[in-house]
Design brief:
Structural class: mainly beta
CATH class of the largest domain: Mainly Beta
Strand content: 35-45%
CATH superfamily of the largest domain: YVTN repeat-like/Quinoprotein amine dehydrogenase
Shape: globular
Radius of gyration: 20 Å
Order of helices and strands: HEEEEEEEEEEEEEEEEEEEEEEEEHEE
Strand order of the largest sheet: 1-2-3-4
Length: 361
């Protein structure tokens, strides 16, 4: 299955992204290259190697409409790759960073992308036709530490960030000449670029992966203290709740529907969280469990049926002596899951996702 294929490409993958038709996947095998594989006759074959960065590639995103790849690296640079015939041609991005670029995401309209960095800044980049390069406007002096993740609201204006200062923030990224006023948020006030909409101080430790729900009504992010946070009504008076769990911390999250989230991280096993009819979020189950917990919620069987086919059982059995205490037998992954991406099968309502794993040596 495609959901497992990325895990099999290389021993160590720092990040990955899928082509619009999901026939190709781009990932970094923990070096300064971007490898692109294509599914040919039910077999994955390497078709391109993108070489421009000098240091490890820390972020990749593949636009779904314009078919462009953006990559960022610890070398403080970013490139937008355009397909021209059989080759991928890089376009320079002016980031003006003095620290590593850590993460990147295209906006929903794909006329901008955001780059989080170790310089405590976020670069919002857009294309300048006359100079044939991508320039950036920088959100400065808002973060107290490295920006670990960025996520775009469906309105193409609001941008959520997480940082190792333990906070999650939401900013306006309206750029005159790039965005239209019809897409701006709020009728009485027009937030300017870089204006902070809200700062969430829910985590007492590093904050990681942040995502918006499909409607943009709910924001979810995770902390290094083994907690996941859900926030509604983003604004002056947000409604927040947290879910604590007794397992290792998460690194990334993904909304597979408005009321269901998949969390992945150091426990090497995707976790399902869901909201009930009253909007109360709770942990449901691990996807890698062989058997359903008898003490779990009744609704767990529904999630098991919906997601049970996403992962195959481990090919090689492990003795009890070799299984880490925190890892559940039957899980597909052997190490920390650092990235998760949604896969929507074309013409079908079935939802799938892919994961990539980083090996610590």
């Amino acid at each position: 299955m495609a959901a497992v294929a990325v895990h099999q490409f290389a021993q160590c993958i720092t990040c990955h992204a899928w082509s619009p038709d999901h026939s190709m996947v781009a990932f970094c095998p923990n070096n300064n290259e971007v490898h692109i594989y294509k599914l040919v006759n039910d077999k994955w074959e390497k078709v391109h190697v993108l070489q421009k960065h000098d240091q490890i590639v820390s972020g990749i995103d593949w636009s779904g409409k314009s078919n462009r790849i953006v990559s960022v690296s610890h070398d403080r640079n970013s490139y937008v790759w355009n397909r021209e015939g059989p080759e991928w041609v890089p376009t320079l991005v002016i980031l003006r960073l003095n620290r590593a670029a850590l993460c990147v995401r295209w906006s929903p309209k794909e006329n901008k992308f955001a780059v989080g960095s170790g310089a405590k800044t976020v670069c919002v980049c857009y294309y300048e036709q006359e100079n044939n390069w991508w320039v950036s406007k920088v959100i400065r002096k808002k973060h107290d530490s490295s920006v670990t993740s960025v996520a775009w609201h469906p309105n193409n204006i609001l941008l959520a960030t997480t940082s190792t200062d333990g906070k999650c923030r939401v900013f306006s990224t309206f750029i005159k000449g790039v965005d239209t006023r019809e897409s701006k948020t709020g009728s009485s006030s027009d937030p300017k670029f870089g204006e902070q909409i809200v700062q969430l101080d829910l985590s007492s430790s590093w904050a990681f992966g942040v995502k918006w729900s499909p409607s943009g009504n709910t924001l979810a992010y995770v902390g290094h203290n083994s907690m996941i946070y859900f926030v509604d009504d983003i604004g002056p008076s947000p409604l927040a709740q947290n879910v604590a769990f007794r397992n290792l911390p998460l690194r990334d999250v993904l909304f597979v529907s408005e009321k269901m989230v998949i969390g992945v991280g150091f426990d090497c096993n995707p976790m399902v969280f869901a909201a009930d009819k009253s909007g109360l979020w709770s942990f449901i189950r691990f996807l890698g469990e062989r058997k359903e917990s008898l003490s779990g919620p009744k609704s767990g069987s529904q999630f098991s049926e919906a997601f049970g086919k996403l992962y195959a059982q481990a090919k090689h059995g492990l003795s009890n002596d070799t299984v880490e205490p925190s890892k559940i037998q039957g899980a597909v992954h052997d190490n920390c899951i650092n990235c998760i991406a949604l896969l929507n099968k074309k013409g079908s309502q079935t939802k799938r996702f892919s994961t990539s794993v980083f090996l610590f040596r």
